[in-house]
Amino acid sequence: MRNDVLETLILALTGNKPTNFDELHWRDVIRVARSADVVHRLSHTVLNSDFVDKLSDKVKATCFSYNRHTQLFHNQVKYEYTKLQKDTQGIEFGHLTFLKGAAYVISDSQAANGRIFSDIDILVDKPSLSVVERRLNLVGWVSMKGTDYDQNYYRKWSHEIPPLMHVQRKTVLDVHHNIIPPVSGKTPNMETLISSKVMKEGNFSVLSPAGMVLHSAVHLFFKEEFVFGFRDLSDIYLLVTENQHDDEFWRELKALSTKLGFEREVYLALHFLTLIMGWVPVKESKVLFNSSGTGYLSSKICDWMFLRILRPKHKSVRLRGTEIAYFLGFVRGHMKKMSLGVLAYHVMYKGFSSFKYLITGQKKRADLLEK
Amino acid sequence: MGLSLKMAQVRLSELEFDEVSKALRKKGITVDTGLASFHIRTPNRSVARSFYDMYSNHMVCLQDTWFDFTISVESPPNLRRLFRPQALFKLDGIPPFLPLPKAHSYPLLEWGMNWCVASHYHTYLILHAAVLEKSGKAVILPAPPGSGKSTLCTYLAYSGWRLLSDEMAVIDLVTGEISPFLRPICVKNDAIDIVKRWFPDAVLTPTAKDTQKGSVAHIRPPINAIQNTNVRPRVHTILFPSYSRDAERTDIRELNHAEALPKLLENAFNNEVLGADGFRSLIKLMDDASLIADAEYANVQDVDLFLTDRLQEATCETMS
Question: Which residue range(s) make up the domain with B155?
């Protein structure tokens, strides 16, 4: 299970001091980080660490370059944030809450460090959705082309409208009205989640740290694709360690996860923070999230599966059985998300698409670039 | 990032093709392009052949050594390969873009290498431009596709100028120095035959037809370009070339900064990434340049003579 390259990567990402500073070792650390989408975060922590001088010039030059790239993403988010404020003036809406990467940047969280993203996620209350969408259309945000099937799927089953792209700036905006798709039959009350929001300028907001952890955990354990699972886990690590000495944070996390019915997802997030990122649980977390709520066997299977899924996917660090674990995760994610009838239809359609790809090699660009 | 792959480097031409082809299939080969080093693997023998021809003057390393990117060109895992095969470019085992027809495998490798630098090297200002040097002074030729930039670049590279890059001018944000990014020159359509006529001894890859850019072929850079990669010249001239078949004579017109800036921006790869720093470095680039001009040219010799004259004048001035 031990892997020197992964060990160095995790030590660096969690703010600890690695033991190996060899240039070729770090070359491999950078490769694994790049494939897991954490190379910007690695660069940020390395350049701000006390061991940066032990690294070779080539390693440092690589980190400088990625760090500059992070700056672009963050500048862009801050710009869009201000622009959206101007653009939504004069319309009435319940709330507009920034989520995930964009929210980390706006709230100056540790989780913003070296965090890049391909789109900006916002959560709008469902009654305000159409008025917000119409206004966004008016100021240059247009629906990205999708097939009729995709458009229909989003409108009917999804927790967000199809992604919008700004015609001039090419920024992509994901507008959600829930954090998980209603198709799952489990529609958590968003009023409860945003009751913990932190207000920003105007009537824009971000979730509280506990809300962010909950959302990130749900995002990680309530889906069927895990391309950036390791990156998401490292987000949660930073969110948790930033707030872990605040009792209120734990009480709020417990209350939110109970009310919304996501105790298991939060438990899993904390469990794998320990197993993968080497996090040491604090007293409150042990008291409040002490049980997996499943039997011995299913928790063993769950460990086996997620220890593979949540590792970087680079072939130099992957464990035996990773493909099987991804398949199990795919089935598990879909089963959580959809009723059997919808699942059968969706799998049939997607299965047909994959079959078409297998034969013709023609694949939608969106599938390939999906992040 | 950088130049000094000191460990056990050899010139590619000193190796046998079979050895190179086998290494590309198995452990991979690391090639030094000046700015960045690439660890390359491919099971495709014709890609190996073109690589061997194009990089024969380059320094490579077969052992485990530092590299900036690990890339491959391979077949995507689908049954289509049985009747209409494709080629897939990967960085770190992940394909950043869609596959191309297998016949475009070699151009795909070259374009993939450009993409690696353009989307990861943000401590440099990167312009879509050819760069050549004479007597320590650099000429930057920024131009959109179809302007005849690469044809002009090939002529100059084989007529006494030292090639630094055909595709990208890579300019240090702090020092303003230009790094060599030494790669084969990519010529398109009619230019392929023209170049073959001008320089019968130049080595070209087989022509890949019907690519996004039309027919393309790559040309091996001359050996003098690879021998002096540690010389990092500063800009002397920025010339925006545009070939005109109908022009009766070559027309060169000096530009002021206000006229030149939008043309530079149009050819900047990563300007929005760099933000204010990128803008400042564009201004600095124009300040550093002794000459900024538009060149609508009828033949490449005129441009060569003009540029050589201006560089000589500058050299005489400094000496007197």
Answer: 124-183+221-319
On whether both B25 and B163 belong to a single domain, the answer is: no
pLDDT range class, residue B2, cuts 50, 70, 90: very low
Per-residue pLDDT of B308-319, as tens digits, reads: 998 888 777 766
Residue B2 covered by a domain: no
Say whether both B251 and B149 belong to one domain.
yes
Do B157 and B260 fall into the same domain?
Answer: yes
Please report, for the domain that includes residue A101, its CATH number: 3.30.460.40
CA distance A263 to chain B (A): 34
Question: B118 at the A interface (CB within 8 A)?
Answer: no
| Residues B150 and B290 placed together within one structural domain of the fold | yes
At A95, the amino acid letter reads H
Residue B47 has phi, psi (to 5 degrees) of -65, -40
Q: Is A240 among the domain residues?
A: yes
Count of pairs with CB atoms under 8 A, one residue in A, one in B = 71
Long-range contacts of A223-227 (CB under 8 A, 24+ apart): A223/A333, A223/A337, A224/A329, A224/A330, A224/A331, A224/A332, A224/A333, A224/A334, A224/A337, A225/A330, A225/A333, A225/A370, A226/A309, A226/A310, A226/A326, A226/A329, A227/A313, A227/A370, A227/A371
Query: Which chain B residues are within 8 Å of A35, Cβ to Cβ?
Result: 92-94
CA distance B258 to chain A (A): 24
CB contacts of A358 in chain B (<8 Å) are 78-80
The answer to whether B92 contacts A34, with C-beta atoms less than 8 Å apart, is: yes
Residues of chain B found within 8 Å of residue A368, distances taken between Cβ atoms: 95, 97-98
> Which chain B residue has its CA at the smallest distance from A73's CA?
B273
Location of structure tokens 């003036």: A89
B247 part of a folded domain: yes
B82–chain A Cβ distance below 8 A for any pair: no
Structure tokens that stand for A86 in this block: 């101007």
Asked whether residue B22 is domain-assigned, the answer is yes
Does the beta-carbon distance from B92 to A31 stay under 8 Å?
A: yes
| CB-closest option in B76, B93, B121 to A361 | B76
pLDDT band at A184 (very low <50, low <70, confident <90, very high): low
CB contact under 8 A, A315 and B64: no
- Domain residues for A65? 4-338
Reported as a pLDDT band with limits 50, 70 and 90, residue B163 is very high
Q: What is the pLDDT of residues A40-66, one digit of tens each?
A: 999 999 999 999 999 999 999 999 999
Q: What is the pTM of this model?
A: 0.85
Residues B115 and B44 in one domain: yes
Is residue B97 less than 8 Å (CB to CB) from chain A?
yes
| A347/B119 Cα distance (integer angstroms) | 35
Examine residue A357 and state whether it is found in any structural domain, yes or no: no
Cβ–Cβ contact A361 with B under 8 A: yes
Work out how many domains chain A is built from and give that number.
1
Q: In this structure, are B167 and B245 located in the same domain?
A: yes
**Cβ–Cβ below 8 Å for B275 and A75:** yes
Q: What is the ipTM of this complex?
A: 0.83
